[in-house]
Amino acid sequence: MSKQTEEKKGKSKQIKLYDIEKALSKLEEIKKTLNELKIALESREIREAIDFYEKQKSCGLEYTWVKGGSGKQYYYYYLKCKENGHTVSIYLGNNLDIESYNKYKRISKRLFELKEVLENFIENSLEDMETLLNENK
User: Fold this and answer.
1) Phi-psi region of 13 (alpha: psi -120 to 50; beta: other; left: phi over 0)
2) CA 129 to CA 136: how far, in whole Å?
3) CA 94, 100, 103 angle in degrees (round to 5)?
4) Which residue, of 6, 17, 88, 111, has the greatest Cβ tally within 10 A?
5) SS3 content of the chain, % helix, strand, coil (to 5)
6) Which residues, 6 or more positions from 30, have their beta carbon under 8 angstroms from its beta carbon?
7) What are phi and psi of 77, to 5 degrees?
8) Model pTM greater than 0.85?
9) What is d(CA 100, CA 116) in angstroms, rounded to the nearest whole number?
10) What's the rounded Cα separation, in Å, for the pair 31 and 18?
11) Are 81 and 88 in contact, with CB atoms under 8 Å apart?
12) Which three-class secondary structure string do you get for 16-50?
């Protein structure tokens, strides 16, 4: 084997070794970021939004009227929810900011879905990363 071929092989091994170290370093950074994301998903604000969605995902908003004693019609917002095969009405009042309510429900739904997907991904990824990092110490 020529000297030039041996030098190329030596450089190739060094590059591969360097690439592994670089990849492991990036893996550590990703692991740290995933742990931070895990903590963020457990924050009070995220939990409250997810709880809101879980409680109201089977509910629909309804604007209806009630006839008062004097015969006058009064309008109110209700949540109509399905619970154990029955419809339950939850009074929300007549001053509901419908845009804000709908926006918060959409945000809550996205956070709920995101948390479900990410929790599984983060746990599996962290376990895999820990194994890889321990193998290469």
Assistant:
1) alpha
2) 11
3) 135
4) 111
5) 65, 20, 15
6) 125, 129
7) -100, 140
8) no
9) 24
10) 20
11) yes
12) HHHHHHHHHHHHHHHHHHHHHHHHHHCCHHHHHHH
**74 conformational bin, left if phi > 0, alpha if psi -120 to 50, beta if neither:** beta
Nearest to 28 by CA among 135, 134, 133: 133
Rounded CA-CA distance 94/125 in Å is 48
80 within 8 A of 89, measured Cβ to Cβ: yes
Q: Residue with structure tokens 């949540």?
A: 79
Q: How many CB atoms lie within 10 A of CB 122?
A: 18
- To which residue do tokens 């360097």 refer? 18
Token pair, residue 38, equals 């895990």
From 24-33, 53-62, 128-137, the region with the lowest mean pLDDT: 128-137
On the 0-12 / 13-18 / 19+ scale of CB atoms within 10 A, 36 is exposed
Tens digits of residue pLDDT in 75-114: 999 999 988 889 999 889 889 999 999 999 999 999 999 9
